[in-house]
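re: that complex we talked abt at group meeting.

here r the seqs, copy pasted straight from the sheet so there may be weird spacing, ignore it
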Amino acid sequence: MTKEMRKCIITTKSQTLAKKAERALLKVGIGARVTSVDPSLTERGCGWGVELPCADVTPAEEALRRDRIYFGVTLGGGI
Amino acid sequence: MIYLDNAATSFPKPREVIKATAAAMRDMCGNPGRGSHRAAAAAAERVYRCREAAGRFFHAQPENVVLTCNATAALNVAVKGYVRESDRILISDIEHNSVLRPASRAAKERGSELLIYQTYPGDDERTVDGIKRLMIPGSTVVVANHMSNICGRVLPIAEIGELCRERECAFIVDGSQSAGRLGIDVSGMKIDALCVPGHKGLYGPQGTGLLVFGDGIHGLPETLTEGGSGMNSIDITMPNDPPERYEAGTLNSPGAAGLCAGIEWVEKTGIDRISERECELCRQFCMNVAKAPGVTVYSGLDGGHVALFGISGKSPAGVGALLDERGICVRAGLHCSPLAHKTVGTYPGGAVRASFGYFNTPSEAHKAADAVCEIAGL
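got the structure back, here u go
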């Protein structure tokens, strides 16, 4: 599987912020989708984030910073 | 039936609202925020759209829009959550019980002082000055009823917000009657917490309300309810941030869909247009009933969608019943606002309230006025 095909998840504080992130990323042409994050991957139980192609992570994080949408760690490559 | 109780809940609802609510019940079967399968995702999308619509409407970020079951629930969170030990609580002399009761309880439990500030119609400066004199900078919570449910009196919330921000005091606004009728800018008016019902001026379904946080300096109020939040499940406390912090349990997602449609309908129709129409109907009604001997009009002639009146020799409940027999729905009594009735001078007996909505017609206002005049003559 190429990097382009692999999926990553940019985690957010909440599902609401994940939705906000999804909207912001779609606006800049990045195909992101809200997803839940397994409790085994977080420190606090069930989490949320946006799933997107790993190749888009860097521009996505830039876009979220520009829009002041707080995000957490990015998971993936193997997801 | 002529429905003149829009201050209690608006009726009828726009077609779009009924359609959106019904469609949500039919098609949107998942629990938003609980799982990411397609059914839950569809419900979550609807809920987020409601937050976006409310955020746009009240000039707030969508993540600062908390869905509640009504304005009272929102006010309980805000009032009880912001008041700290030994704070002073200031409420206006036109507050509804949805403010007076939680404020009284918070004062009792936290050893806080509850004071009522006087409002002066037509003299906003005097009203604001009165608040200023009662404030303790840094430890006062100020609550203002933007628009009274019995007399249509409007408080200068932008000026009060400015004062509260200057003095580092939390500012809570009850927008129950003003949302959808007057412009409210949570950010520009420096409101810390705006509490509104979904089912009155926003024309959404009953069982909906909003608590909208501004970008204030007071941090967030404590939670009133704890439970499942769909995230951070290992934590024993609720999440740190809105909206999930204040949304324990399953949301009313069909209600949110309907409320979203209501807000969009109000935006499309225009609050000025809605307000002008309601005020004109109210004024026409008041002008006509005022002509009948024995009828006293306490408010409604000079603005607002609420007409408050009484007929000498007849109890408000009696008048309400006689109007109901004639197919006219009004509300009689103290309207859960004894404080406001004391201020207006209709306490303890109360009065009859006819409150107009966008869908009332001039013909209805006329027929209702005729009925009041006829009853006055009995």
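couple things i noticed - Residues 38-58 of chain B form the longest helix (21 residues). Chain B has two domains: 15-268, 271-376.
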